[in-house]
Write a structure and sequence with these properties.
single chain; alpha+beta; HIT family, subunit A; ten-stranded antiparallel β-sheet; three-stranded mixed β-sheet; globular
Amino acid sequence: MPELRKDPILGRWIIISKERRKRPTDFPVEVSTGIGGFCPLCPGNESSTPPEVLAFRDGSLPANGPGWNVRVVPNKFPALIIEGNLSKEGIGLYDRMNGIGAHEVIVESPNHDHNFADFIPVEMALVFKAYKERIIDLEKDQRFRYVMVFKNHGRAAGASLEHSHSQLIALPILPRMIVSELEGAKSHYKYKERCIFCDIIRQELQQKERVVCENDRFITIMPFAPRTPFEMWILPKRHSSSFYFQDDDEIHALAELFSESLQRLCNCIPNVPYNYVLHTDPLRSGGLEYYHWHFEIVPTLTSIAGFEWGSGFYINPMPPEEAAQFLRESLTIP
């Protein structure tokens, strides 16, 4: 029988349609041909992008040239622009402001064909360090209230370039998803005087049904009410509301588990398209007792159609307990 499951943080209902259940091999995945033309993100083509705002290089090589390991540049076609004032105004019932923000591209490797899931932890840690440094820098701009970091991998997940990259957008308002998370987490804290994410981690470690993998500092779980098959959350075991408070050792431990989690997913479903999003607290929050930063990895394996748009419900054909078991069995880590 199908199940209705409620997300304990957002209050969002998910339909687990067991009658539609599938195995990992039942999900069709579009395989990229790898055929492409000019790539503006490759070494030697730095003049094709706006000047870099951050780069990690070996030695003292000059900026905006080859020799980088990770490079961050403004998006050439930004969703929001950094110059100008917010100029908020009301138009009758409606509110409007200028589209002020920052939109940047994190080029994760100089190697055009290097798949993010195949990065070794030290390479992945450098990408996460770039996220941290850019958030800390953008926090200085008082116009911005939140920095959204995300990655689209695969054409079905919205990637327009094959070269491995992620993006960040600094926003002058809080995204509705983050507001809902903050409100749900704060409501739980007022009642229980505990962080709901910490409670989830404790329960998942006890039950083990939805745990994919873990190390000393981080855990990867399937949420109880996942939107899609194989949705994963990666959370620090130690309570922390801000991603950019992590030190180098914590970032490396995150990279180790993130790498293992993606390897398990890609071993289970080769060439899987996915998105991941960093959920962290608003800028200048000063640390929140009730909120817990985390990454959400959401494979693009199901379609959003009329029922989902009309109801706000997602239909997931695979219970997370089964998906977690597939991932646990998909890879042997030495």
